[in-house]
Amino acid sequence: MIQAIFKGNQGMLVTAVAFSLITALVSYFLGRRFEKPGVLCALTGAALAGIITATLYPISPDAPASATCFIERGFVTGTFTAQGLLNVLLFVPLAALATWLTRRPVPVTLACVALSATIEVTQALTPGMGRACDSIDLWTNSIGACAGALVASAGLYWDTARGGRDAGVLISRHQVRRSFIGFAAGIAAIGLTSAFTVTFVMAEVAWANTASAEQQEAARKAIADFLGEQAHVASVQFFPGPAGGPGRISANTDRGVLDIEWPSREVSSGLLQPTSPALGPDTAPVSDGAALKAGNAFVRDHFPWALAGRTNVSAAGPQQTSKLVSWRSRKDGVLMPMRMDVLVGPDRKIISFTARHIPDPELPSVHVDRRQAQAIATRKFPGDVVHSGELLARTDNAGRWHPYWMLSVGPPGAEAAPSQDGVAQDGPLDEGSSQSTTAPSIQVLVLDAVTGAVATTNPDSAESD
């Protein structure tokens, strides 16, 4: 919640100082009026103001309300991260000062927990927050409230033992019962409100994948490059690759999401608009020329290696108002592994992109042409026809680059599977019979373009454009 909270946000710092001073002054005079220690009241008010500013200051005015709360499974792991410990410390001063002021640790602790729950739901429901509603935040804030109340209670007992007070800590069965009744009523009200307005999502343990300092620095540079210095980071996570292979860094911000390959540090994909452009009945689609101009400018700035490929523009998105600008490379008729796709919205802004930077590999000569590949396919599936096909490069079971034919085969008149043009695959080929695509009557057949032997692939790895 508060990791690097003031970094690059002077407005929040000014607001925190001003709000804390005002709240401290008001609390001081209210305390004096009710015959309470003025300085202690002022400090308690300032601590409360600090929490409100740190958690509810709008850091992304253009962001819509997320209306989502993430329920994490790794409570223990999340507590001992840097962000988790900061969230613990955030509530310690308020709970300690309020306990010392009232000498009632149970009501104070429960009130702090209810405050944290209210903050989390408010973050989810308020536009412009640019923050994540997360169960780990509630958990760590609650630990901080308990810790602060315990520290203050121990201090009060010690002060009483040396004659400083007539009664150290006021705890009675009646007080505890009333506190829990009030707490239950407050949590019920929060729960009832969120039940109709917030979507709760079970999340994997994000804290277990917390990026290292080096990975966070790589993410920071990529965020500044693609999303700007003013983008506020919500999380940076690292996902290791299989069998110790290259992994992936996922950087989430209020302005978009980036995926970064590790350890190469190459940005492989990104969502640059957290919300889809508003479309009305009269929204005009972006023209091919405008989309190509915007896509070329973006690629020239970030992926100049892709400009050597051939360009294609196709309609995409809701109401076909966006355009997908793609770059592909062919060598001797074989689609190479590199890929570059940029989605341009009707406002001529980049919505998302995917990039795959792989130099053209050396391949064995192709001996099976399209006509021969289609003949092999129809022999394997008598009565069916080939609806589409693509000659592309991908790695074989030994990790070597090799040319393959990928063919969509099915009954005449059946709904054809998506064309494979523009996507070169890699990864080991699975053995067994050919698999069907999402269209149940269509089979995807993979043929070795050198020998004509039938190979198969998992349909999940058969991406389409």
From TrEMBL:
Coiled coil: none
Transmembrane helix in keyword set: yes
Disordered: region residues: 412-441
InterPro entries, sorted: VanZ-like
VanZ-like domain sequence ranges: 82-153
Keyword vocabulary terms for this entry: Membrane, Transmembrane, Transmembrane helix
Name of the molecule in the record: VanZ family protein
Naturally occurring in which organism (per UniProt): Streptomyces carpinensis
